[in-house]
Give the backbone structure.
Amino acid sequence: MNRLTIVLAVIMPVLLNAQNVLIKNGTVLTITKGVKENSDILVTNGKIARIDKNISAPNGTSIIDATGMFVMPGIIDAHSHIALDVVNEATNPVTAEVNVGDALDPLDVSIYRALAGGVTATHAMHGSANAVGGQCETIKLRYGTVNPDELRMEGAPRTIKFALGENPIRVHGEGNKIMPNTRMGVEQVFRNAFSEAQLYMKDWDDYKKGLRKSSPEYNLRNETMADILKGNIIIHCHSYRADEILMLMRVLKDYNINRICFQHVNEGFKVAPELAAFGAGASVFADWWAYKFEVYYSTAYNAAILTRNGVVTSINSDSEELIRHLYHEAAKTQRYGDLTDDEALALITINPAKQLGIDKRVGSLEVGKDADIAIFKGHPLSVYAVPQKTLVDGQVRFDIEKDPDDTRIDINPNEKYSTFYETERNYENSGCLRGISEMLMQESYAKFMRFKYSQNHTH
Amino acid sequence: MKHLYIFFSLIILINTIIPSFGQQVKKAENGVFLLKNATLHTVSSSTYIGDILLKDGIIAEIGKSVSNPPNAKVIDCTGKHIYPGLIDSGSRLGLVEIDAVSLTNDFDEHGDFVPHMKALIAVNPNAVAIPVTRVNGVTTVFAKPDGGTFPGTGALIDLFGYSPEQMTCGSERVIMRFPSTGRRGRWDRRTDEDVKKDAEKALKNINDIWSIAVQYMKMDSASKADNQKWCTNNPQMMALLPIVKGEQPLFIEVNSKNDIESALEWVSDKKLKAVFTGVAEGWRVADKIAKANIPVITGPILNTPRRDNDRYDASYTNPSKMAKAGIKVALRTDNAENTRNLPFNAAFAAAYGMGIENALRSVTLTPAEIFGVADKYGSLDKGKVANIIVADGDPFETKTKIEKLFIRGWSIPLESRQTLLYDEFLQRTPGIK
C-alpha cells in the first residue's frame, strides 16, 4: 500500500460522510446571533455555509423541510460516560496516564438514544474514583460506525478528570486504607502530583541542557501532569462542596494553572463570585441532589445563580437517561431562576463548547461551524418538545420518521428480546462511580450467595 | 427631581431592610379563601372561568360565580389557572433523607416477608425534600416501602403536616414484588438457569404465603363467628387479611413482559383485587392487562428503555399505549428527593401520545380512584379536600410558576430550602472581599 492509499483510506470515510443539506424555513435558534424566523440553513461538506431566507438548493443538496419547526445547534453534554467500555481505573489516587479514549465503544445504544434527544457531542469522561483520574475524550455521536476512532472529535483539546470529596475518599481512604481519607489528604494528593511533575520537567530540562548525563526515566503519568502545568490540558473536576472548590482553585493558583471547569459543583452557587473571578467554568445538574451527603445542601437554582454571577455554566447529564432530554433539563432554569431562552439554551450548547475548548467549531449556528444541528417540533425549552432530526457534520443520524424499533448495531441473532433490566440505568450504574458501584454490588451479591451457601450446608 | 430620586431610593431601601428585621419563618396560613376569576381545570368535568371557595379544609363552593362570605380572604386570580394538587402514586419521599446515608433510609426493613412494616410510621414530616416537592404542585404522594417480596405497607399522604396523623389520607396499601425473571442490573451475572430457578423459588414462596394467609383468614373468621377471642401474634398475616378478604387491593410490583403475564395468571385464580405497579413493559401486553381489568401505576416516565433493543422512547410511550388499550393508568416518579419532577414525567407521557388532558387525569383523579379516595381527592369538586394549585399556566410546562398552593385548605408558603439558598446566594454578601 503506498502512501496515497493510506491517506485516502483515512480521508475517504470523511468524504463519504460529508453532506450537502438545505434545512428550509425553520425558526433558527442561533444562540449567539439571535432567533431568525422562517430561515434556511445551507450545509456544504458538513459545515454551515449560509443562514438566510429563501436559499435555493444547489445541485446535489438534500432538502429538509423545517416549516413550523425549531432548529438549534446540536446539544453538547460536557459530562457523560456513554460510548465507554470502562470508566474508572480505580487503582491509584493518581492515574493521569490512562485515557478513556482507549476504551471507546461505538456500539453503545445510548449513543443513538442521546442523538434522539438532539445531542451531537459529548465529553466522554473518566470516573471520579481517583483525585487525578484519567484523560477524557470529546466525541461526536457518529452512531453507525463500528470504528471507535471515528467517534473522536478531531482537534478537540485534551481534557482530564479530577475528583474531590467523597468518591476518592471512599475508594482510596475507606476502601484501600491509603491517602486520601480526608479532604486534607485530597489536597495533598494534588500538590504532590504537581510537584513531582515539576521535578520531572526540571530533570528533563537539565538533561536537555546537558546538566545531567543520563536521561531521566520516561513516565507517562508525570508527562501528563506536566502537560497540565504547561496549560495543554483542560481540567474537568468532579466536585460538590464549596470549600473543596476553593481549595482546588488555591492549589491551581500556586501552580499557575488556569484552565478548569468544575463538574457537578452542586455548591458552586456558594462560591460563584470566586469561580467567576478565577475564570473557572461550572457544569452542573439541573436538579439532582440528596443522593449523598455532599449534595444535601443543593439548590436547583444553582445554574441561574452561577450564570447571574458571570460564571460560564453548562448543564450536563452524567447519565444515559438525562442525556436524552438535556433540552428539558436546561428549561428547568426558567422555573428555577428565570433565565432567558438564550441563556437557558446556552447552557447546553455554546457554554459546554467553551468548557471543552471547541466553541470555535460547535455550540451555535454560525457560518463556518460544523453542521451539528437538532430539529425540534415545539420550542426545545417546552416540556412538550419532541426532537425530530439530529445531524452530525451535516449527516442525519436520527430521524424520527425513519427511526427503527431496534437501533442496536451488535445484534445477538440467538436472542428474541435482549435482556430485561429491573432497575433503570441510572446514575448508580452509568455515572461517575461506574465500575466501582458494580464492584461493590458484585461484592455484596457474592456475600449474599456465600451466606446462602453456608446456610444450606450447616444444617 | 434629585430629591424625589433619593426619596424613592430610601423607600426601596426601607422596604428591603425592614422585613429582614426580626423576620420570621413563613408559616402556613389557615382561613377562608375565595379565589376569583381563575380558569378552573376541574378534571372531573369541564374547564371554565370561575370562583372557588376554600373553607374548613375543603372546597366549600365552586362555580362560575361564588358569593363572598363575610370573613373570606378574597384573592383575584384573573389570568391564573387552578388545578387539583398533583398526586404521585409511588415515591419514597419522607422515607429517605439522603440516599447514600443508609441510616437515613427507612424504606427497606430486613426480612423478605414484612408486609406489616408501615410507611406511615417512618415518614418524616420534616424531610427537607417535602417542601421542595410541594412547591412544584405535588400535594399528595404514595410513600412506599421497597426491598423484599413483601416490603411493607405504603401510605397516601398529603405533603403538609407535622405528624403522620395530620398527613395521612386514610389509604394504605400492601405491596408485593412479583418474582422477577429480569436482571437486577448489569452486575447481575447469574446464569439464565439460575435466574429461572430463583424466580421459581420465589413464586413457590408467594404461593405458600398466600395459602397460609387464606388459612389464617379462615381461622380468623371462624373464631370471630364463634365469638371467641383468637389469641394470635402474627402481624404479617394480619397485614394480609384485608387482601385475602378482597377488601383491599394488593399492589403488585411487576415490570417485564414475561413477569406481567405470570402475574396475570397468578392473580386470575384468586379472589383478589390487584393493582399492578411499575409495569415498564405494559405496552407489550396491554391488551391482556386491559382484559383482566387491572389498574396500573407506572413510572418513572423519564427513564431509559429496560432493554437495549427497545425503541428509544419506549418509556415515554408506555403510559399512552396502555391507556389506549383501555387500562386505567396512574403515574409515579418512584423517586424520593426529585418527586418534584412528577409534572414533567406526566408531560412526557402527554407529549408522547397520551395528551395533556389524560396525563393530567393520571396524576389527579385516576390515582384518587385507585387509592379509593376519589370522594375526597383528585378533582375540583364541592366537598373535596382543598388541595389546590394556582399557576400562571400549565403546571406541566417547565417554565410555569406555581404561584399559590393550598393543602387541606392551608395556604402554604412557596418556600423550600432550595428557594432560601437562592435568596441568600443570588447576590452573596459579602461578595468576593
